[in-house]
Amino acid sequence: MKSIHISGLLLAVVGLTLPATMALSAETETKAAVGVMRDFNRADQDRDGYLSSKEGRDYIGTSLSLDDLAFRAADSNSDGRLSPEEFASHAEAKRAETLPTPPVDKPAPYSY
User: What is residue 63's predicted lDDT score, i.e. its pLDDT?
Assistant: First the structure.
């Protein structure tokens, strides 16, 4: 778990890891975490430290858009709002969707 200071807040950014075969440098992971928190802060219109479903919908148009279904899936504790950690987990899932899948070796054809 990494901790990042943003705007005087200490936030634990969780779940920003990739499989070992696609590991990022610590600097790249830190930049990704800062980018996620920047996106969270942009979406958090009322600056209460959480995203409401309305704030999530209003953020549509970005790669981290949250329609109602995505919002409910990201809201892991079902409290009706997203914490920075829940948003970071959503961001990781979206990033994982866009990663290329490694090629699968096809077995050699059998010869008789």
Answer: 60
CATH of the domain at 30: 1.10.238.10
Q: According to the model, what pLDDT value does residue 65 have?
A: 65
* Burial of residue 38 (number of CB atoms within 10 Å: 0-12, 13-18, 19+): exposed
Can you give the residue range of the structural domain that contains 78?
A: 2-16+26-98
What is the sign, positive or negative, of the torsion defined by CA atoms of 8, 10, 15, 17? positive
- Report phi then psi at 79, rounded to 5: -95, 5
Whole-angstrom distance, CA of residue 92 vs CA of residue 15 = 7
To which residue do tokens 């709002």 refer? Answer: 81
Distance in angstroms (rounded) separating the CA atoms of residues 58 and 66: 8
The residue-averaged pLDDT of 22-37 equals 74
Global pTM?
A: 0.61
Contact (CB, 8 A) for 4 and 85: no
